[in-house]
Design a protein that fits this description.
The chain has about 200 residues and is mainly α. The protein has 9 helices and no strands.
């Protein structure tokens, strides 16, 4: 492999990673909003959901960065704390999108919701991550020898699996609110109406 090819592949990977992060941010907000609406039997309005994701872009980025930093510190502290933090922050983005919690407030809300249900949430995350990894592995396996092609296919695979992972987060969030707070459709309607985007 020539140096030019390696540099080109690395640059392509960086650009694709950046695009993936942008897509993840907008998609997470949009999918969370759309999924919450479907529980209220609303028609899925893709344009409205994406407008919401774009409108909350920086708030979602902030919560995502805070979660990533907390999880990274947890993993640096001997792996297990990383899984604990990952579990307890699983509802941060839904708390932002549905309740309008911002920054550390979204993280705190997620932590409070998950408390007492950690194993249930952790198990759900692990099963979802395994399924996600299997899909990504199947899609990228044919391109194992070509770094640039594998990077492109990995980005496409991420675009396919990102909505699934966002939905898992929404389901965990709504399940916990129903279990802990007797959350109803009327409560969800109220929350979505008070946070229009």
């Amino acid at each position: 492999m020539s140096t030019g090819t390696a540099v080109g592949g690395a640059l392509a990977a960086i650009v694709l990673a950046f695009v993936s992060i942008l897509m993840w941010t907008i998609l997470t907000g949009a999918i969370t909003r759309a999924a919450a609406g479907t529980f209220l039997r609303r028609d899925l309005e893709i344009g409205e959901s994406y407008r919401y994701g774009l409108a909350r872009f920086w708030s979602i980025v902030l919560v995502g960065v805070l979660c990533a930093l907390a999880i990274a510190v947890g993993f640096i502290l001997l792996i297990i704390p990383g899984f604990i933090v990952l579990t307890f922050l699983a509802c941060s983005i839904p708390a932002l999108v549905i309740e309008g919690k911002r920054g550390r407030e979204a993280l705190r809300r997620s932590w409070d919701l998950v408390r007492g249900h950690g194993w249930h949430v952790f198990g759900t995350i692990i099963v979802a991550a395994i399924l996600n990894g299997l899909v990504n592995g199947v899609l990228t396996a044919p391109f194992a020898d070509n770094y640039a092609a594998r990077s492109i296919v990995a980005a496409i695979a991420s675009a396919i699996t990102m909505p699934y992972m966002a939905l898992v987060g929404v389901f965990i969030y709504l399940d916990l609110r129903v279990r802990r707070e007797r959350y109803s459709a009327a409560d969800l309607e109220r929350d979505l109406s008070s946070n229009p985007g």
